[in-house]
Amino acid sequence: MNASGPAGSPRLVIENAYLATIVGAEIESGYLTAENGRITGMGAGPAPEFEGAERIDGTGCLVTPGLVNTHHHLYQWATQGMYQDSTLFEWLTGLYRLWAGLDAEVTYGAAAAGLAWLALTGTTTSSDHHYVFPRGRGDLFEAEVRAAGEIGLRFHPCRGSMDRGRSDGGLPPDEVVERTDDILSGTAETIDRYHDPSFDSMLRVAVAPCSPFSVTETLMRESATLARDKGVRLHTHLAETLDEEEHCLEQMGCTPVEYMERIGWLGEDVWFAHAVHLHDKDIRRFADSGSGSAHCPSSNARLGAGVAPVVDLLAAGAPVGLGVDGAASSELTSMAGEMRQAMLFQRAVHGPDALTARQALEIGTLGGARNLGRQREIGSLEIGKLADIAVWRVDGFRAALADPVCALVFGPAPPLARLLVGGRTVVENDELRTVSQDAVAQAGAEARRRLLRGEEKR
């Protein structure tokens, strides 16, 4: 798969478009200018002259910040469609045996396909939580970093880990867990090698032990210390199912959120995946500490886990973003689709005014940026921020909707006229411009075949 990196002019103008800025008033017909990767101007009416700029005609288009995905497992692209009617614990138990066969080649193909799919559906920044590192299978972390560089998305990979296998009372089989000391040293090396804290960084690393039922308390505490010493963020799964709460009560003597508080895992540098089963006191803890959550509505519904209390978290002032989750529990899910699912599920539980289209768009952009600690750089259309921009076609059949934000969130995702990361084109007219779209799709399919062939041989 050949890659040339994002291409485009260092100067650009988007004109004649509807701008949903997230912060401040929307612009019904206006322009946006960018130079050297940052937004330099916005306003109503005709665009100014901008010598040497690429001009993008936004007639019939909605311009939004690029979507920000704050929870994923890219390697799972290779195991989609399996255990279709299982609970989380059944699903995990069944799939761990396959994931034990992951290698760098499978991880690369799956990550490339997963990130390409996100780009084609409006995402400019994605995290990934990779926590399965079978011994002797190559550099899996490097494989997904390489894939992200080729697709051209801003990437926040989380160095995950598991050190509590079945023989120690955990859920994963022993062959997919690592030694605690190896995890900590490997994570430190990964941060030193890859993490870039600069304003326009394309690559930042987080520390991410997998979950309370697959990780020792020692690893949780030491990971928090390591992350804070290195100045990076913390991420883990939390309160996804009632089974997890029962597990924590039985083995830790407290609820999942109480456990996080006890071991120093609440704070503005932490975001949790799922946070479905929260008590009122948990929501207050999240809000008071600034701890964020990544809402994954499709995955939670697919596994029958429940519906996260998003409206209550937002009302309390806690950060909330969205995540597509791994494709094995959220097949071919897009971030645009997750905005719609989040809105509809909250309304199904709390009524038709529970979550608006604009609130859904905000948690899919600025809310995600807050989770990743990048709200000053991405997540809204503001002068000085990075030019990570999605241009959606809301003409044609969608012209029957007077509100373009409604056209984006209430229905299926509109066609993507342009996706810009740092002002450079990654997608144009629903086609990848950084890599061969057919080749990356084939790489994802081959990742699955390779993984299944390996399972047959073991």
Task: Characterise the protein shown here.
With 458 residues, the chain is of the alpha/beta class. The protein contains 14 helices and 17 strands. The chain has helices at residues 88-99, 104-120, 140-151, 180-194, 217-230, 242-251, 256-262, 280-289, 297-302, 310-316, 335-350, 357-371, 404-409, 437-457; strands at 11-19, 27-35, 38-44, 54-57, 61-65, 67-69, 123-130, 154-161, 206-209, 233-238, 270-274, 292-295, 320-322, 389-393, 416-421, 424-428, 431-432. Helix 2 runs parallel beside helix 3, helix 4 packs parallel to helix 5 (217-230) and helix 11 (335-350) crosses helix 12.
Query: Strand share of the residues?
Result: 15-25%
Radius of gyration, in Å, reads 21 Å
Overall form: globular
Describe the biggest sheet?
9 strands, mixed
Write the layout of secondary structure elements.
Layout: E1 11-19, E2 27-35, E3 38-44, E4 54-57, E5 61-65, E6 67-69, H1 88-99, H2 104-120, E7 123-130, H3 140-151, E8 154-161, H4 180-194, E9 206-209, H5 217-230, E10 233-238, H6 242-251, H7 256-262, E11 270-274, H8 280-289, E12 292-295, H9 297-302, H10 310-316, E13 320-322, H11 335-350, H12 357-371, E14 389-393, H13 404-409, E15 416-421, E16 424-428, E17 431-432, H14 437-457
Parallel strand pairs: 1-4, 1-5, 6-7, 7-8, 8-9, 9-10, 10-11, 11-12, 12-13
Antiparallel strand pairs: 1-2, 2-3, 5-14, 14-15, 15-16, 16-17
Helix pairs in contact: 2-3, 2-14, 4-5, 11-12
